[in-house]
Design brief:
mainly alpha; single chain; globular; about 280 residues; about 60% helix
Length: about 280
Amino acid sequence: MKLIDLDAVFNRAMERELIAHAGERTEEEWERAIAEAYAAFGRTPLKELGKTPVQYFAEMGDAQLCETLKEYILQGVPVPDFLSAELSSRGAFPELLALLNETDEELVLYALDALGADRRALPRYAEMLGEEGYDAHVKDHLAELLKERADEVVEPMLALAKGENAPYALEVLSKVSARDGRVFDALLSAFRGADEEELPLYAGYLASYGDERALPALLAEIEREDVGFVAFQELKYAIEALGGEYEKERDFSSDEAYKTIMAATAGADIFGRAKRK
């Protein structure tokens, strides 16, 4: 399949405009002008296509549109925004859902962007989160989408929370709005089993879930003499988010993370507050 690099066609035309009017606009004005010009470009007939870019992709069938996306990626030609927009406008049609069975990361990410949090894709999203064939980049994206419909994927996320993909599943579970004892127990268990590096993450999940029953565990953890500065800050935030308080002064002057953060923020902590020990 011969592809037209529409971005290259647009960039050549825009380059002439930039040269002709250099210095006449601020950077922000140019960014806005380029975005407007690209949208207009999509509505302009091109001799290479015999129609406008928007029409070109809109007239393709579902299968052809997905195959065209594959070819753009396979041939290393930039995927036009007009193609992506047309994919997104059609919803979760079968050929697009089928792309979720591919292993090419770029192709899968385009499919995820087009599908968004469409509930018809949720079962496959949950499966993908538990499969070894997808890397952290894809799984981070999956977790973000699943969080938008967390209440609808409680069961598969609880199952994943028991395995190696637990951090992703727990992130999704932290956004469940219903009070579910199983969700709370999974989040609390992960928090109690966390090491120093994981502690801020799982404290944040408890804060996000919003169940005040987590306060005793958070308060017990923050009282540890060996708790690090970063973990302390996240624990304090979680306690306050759940309606609790912790006002005891602590000395972190020998903590390496504390010293690095204070040096970088001129004496303010990671939340922008004035330095305190």
